[in-house]
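User: Could you go from structure to sequence for me? I need the amino acid at each position, not a summary. Structure tokens:
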């Protein structure tokens, strides 16, 4: 039994698909399948039910999964302990980033970390905030940049990058542009252009509407702020964004803070394994990179301008 077989086994169990698992561990699907078959022969039991389209764990597979995770964690801890003693940082670091986010300070942090520790292999992937949170919890992702509709996730450490109000953005001449104050009830008469489910911004918007019994018409969804703003600028709907997202589009759109959504949308780095020296070191570079992150200008009607936060919070 080899550690890589356990790694492939965990990947297939979590992805529930051999193809996605192979992409995750960066080898061919046939290679993953062969190693899993060999592991099953050594254990004398099938670990997966392959009869359906989605791969599921057998009873034996479920029994083996937590032990496999513990074994890999223990093996990693050995390397980390030696690394700490010898002051050597190496290995692999997986960073997750919410889809549609292009914060250059994160890229600066990765670049400075790579320059300081070229022996660490860095992987960067994009996904929804929900899947990134789950990835950090399971250990598949070491550090994640997520959007959260409320507080940062329970049981994880977090470094808040931005905490700001939701805004509505419309073209000049739109009826909402003539209002000094915009509330959720003002928006439901118009089609909405918003981010998809699984993002923090969408979660916050949906929760706020549900609290008032409102059912907005989500006409169009896009993962990138550029796309949302572009669709709204062409009159296809009211864009729901955060302040910093809307900054680049003030020449095309009129921005109004949604006055009855006071809960901020949060952009934060999250992590779980504080014993990993690579994670700790990347956090040092991240704090430095985000120190001079600019404060978004406030929208008209917002009496409490948001300020990007760099205070560490544990939730």
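Assistant: Here is the amino acid at each position, in order:
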């Amino acid at each position: 039994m080899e550690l890589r077989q356990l790694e492939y086994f965990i990947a297939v169990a979590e992805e529930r698909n051999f193809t996605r698992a192979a992409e995750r561990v960066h080898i061919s699907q046939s290679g993953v399948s062969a190693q899993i078959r060999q592991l099953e022969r050594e254990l004398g039991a099938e670990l997966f039910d392959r009869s359906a389209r989605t791969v599921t764990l057998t009873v034996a597979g479920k029994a083996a999964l937590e032990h496999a995770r513990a074994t890999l964690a223990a093996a990693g801890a050995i390397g980390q302990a030696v690394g700490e003693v010898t002051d050597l940082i190496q290995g692999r670091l997986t960073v997750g980033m919410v889809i549609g986010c292009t914060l250059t300070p994160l890229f600066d942090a990765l670049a400075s970390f790579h320059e300081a520790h070229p022996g660490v292999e860095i992987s960067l992937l994009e996904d929804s905030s929900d899947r990134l949170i789950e990835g950090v919890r399971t250990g598949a992702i070491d550090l994640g940049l997520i959007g959260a509709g409320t507080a940062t996730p329970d049981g994880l450490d977090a470094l808040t990058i931005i905490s700001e109000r939701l805004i509505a953005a419309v073209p000049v001449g739109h009826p909402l542009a003539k209002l000094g104050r915009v509330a959720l009830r003002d928006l439901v008469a118009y089609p909405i252009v918003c981010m998809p489910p699984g993002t923090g911004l969408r979660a916050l918007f949906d929760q706020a509407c549900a609290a008032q019994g409102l059912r907005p018409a989500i006409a169009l969804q896009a993962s990138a702020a550029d796309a949302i703003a572009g669709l709204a600028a062409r009159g296809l709907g009211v864009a729901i964004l955060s302040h910093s997202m809307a900054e680049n589009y003030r020449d095309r759109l009129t921005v109004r803070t949604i006055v009855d959504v006071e809960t901020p949308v949060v952009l934060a780095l999250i992590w779980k394994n504080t014993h990993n020296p690579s994670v700790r070191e990347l956090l040092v570079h991240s704090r430095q990179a985000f120190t001079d992150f600019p404060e978004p200008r406030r929208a008209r009607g917002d009496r409490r301008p948001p300020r990007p936060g760099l205070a560490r919070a544990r939730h």
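One structural detail worth keeping in mind: The chain has a mean pLDDT of 82.
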